[in-house]
Amino acid sequence: MKKLSIKIIFIFLSILITLLLASCSLNSTIIVTIYNNTPVTSGTLTILYGDYNGYADGEISITDPVFPYTASLTCSGKTPSYIVMATLESSTFGTSFGSVFVDTKSQNMIETVINLEPYIILGTDIYEPDNTFNTGHPIQPGEWQARNLYPSGDVDYSKFYATSGLIYDIVTDIPYNDYFATTIVIFDSIGTQITRQSGSSSGTVLNWTATYTGLCYLKVSRNYGYDYSYSLGLFEYSAAGSSQNILSKLKEWRSQ
What we know:
The chain has 256 residues and is mainly beta. It contains two helices and 16 strands.
């Protein structure tokens, strides 16, 4: 009986220690060193950290940092896995970006590195001005257009001719899984909204079966995130067929 009681106590203490260690591991400190791989020598460095579902745990801003820059981030313990993102905003160059995923489940102190790379060069894309229905640039089925959303508040309009009964995929491709997402809206020829789709940081796909024949407008805007580049694609299929794999299209585009 005594041996059994000791065994039960041992098991209880083992479980308690395990729980305590797990609890401590959630309240972690991330030491991140940021390297600047861009020609930017001054600007505002912003470090944002939280879980990859969109929960922000903290944010730090530094003016004209000296690189490599090391920051200590205190995690609240609300999530065991973190994404740390860093942006460097320059009035002369544009935005540089870097990110890293960190697993804090097994350690109380984690050291990691972020490399800043060019994120978007300041300036307008070749389709600007295109902020209204009237200035929207034509896009043809099978075509990709390299665009960006800059400056803040920018929207991109384009237009295409739809045929009733045909299936259309409108795609915004974001090459890297960064903190940026788009919203696509389709309008008819008189500017009435037909449908819309908001995407994630990997891109947006709006699938639509045309309900009429005529001119359609597309509007792409920022769903969330920073100024960033994206590629706009339009694909057309017969009603008897089916949409091809969007990921295959993106892979083909990136390999060109």
